[in-house]
């Protein structure tokens, strides 16, 4: 995520939003596991000032890659956590939140298990609250279990 604008003597600028994680690569045409999705970027830090700028939100995790014919779907990427900065005074219009975890990739069409969903990013300082995790990927059409 981008750093917060330095801000004036009174109020620091707000941190930027973390970048979106990339999608995992697909598995091999016949057999193979899909690649893991990239993790979302960490939110930017709020700028300095008498009032510190707000933390930026974390980026969303990327989706896991699909398995094509036989194989397990890739794991979804983790969501990015919020940056450093203020979170308790009157927030901006949209309060900073952790990024949602990426969804797991689909299992192979013939045979395979769906990928595991990624974890949600920290949405509070100290990591006591987290954003929603990603959904598990679908299992194979002929045989297979869905991911968690």
TrEMBL record:
<protein>
    <submittedName>
        <fullName>PE family protein</fullName>
    </submittedName>
</protein>
<feature type="compositionally biased region" description="Low complexity">
    <location>
        <begin position="85"/>
        <end position="97"/>
    </location>
</feature>
<feature type="region of interest" description="Disordered">
    <location>
        <begin position="82"/>
        <end position="102"/>
    </location>
</feature>
């Amino acid at each position: 995520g981008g750093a917060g604008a330095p801000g004036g003597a009174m109020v620091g600028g707000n941190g930027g939003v973390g970048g979106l994680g990339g999608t995992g690569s697909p598995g091999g045409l016949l057999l193979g596991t899909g690649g893991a999705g990239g993790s979302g970027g960490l939110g930017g830090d709020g700028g300095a000032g008498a009032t510190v700028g707000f933390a930026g939100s974390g980026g969303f995790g990327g989706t896991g890659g699909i398995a094509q014919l036989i194989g397990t779907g890739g794991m979804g990427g983790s969501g990015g956590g919020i940056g450093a900065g203020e979170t308790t005074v009157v927030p901006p219009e949209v309060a900073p939140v952790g990024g949602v975890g990426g969804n797991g990739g689909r299992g192979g069409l013939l045979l395979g298990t769906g990928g595991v969903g990624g974890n949600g990013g920290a949405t509070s300082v100290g990591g006591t609250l987290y954003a929603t995790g990603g959904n598990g990927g679908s299992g194979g059409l002929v045989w297979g279990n869905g991911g968690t």
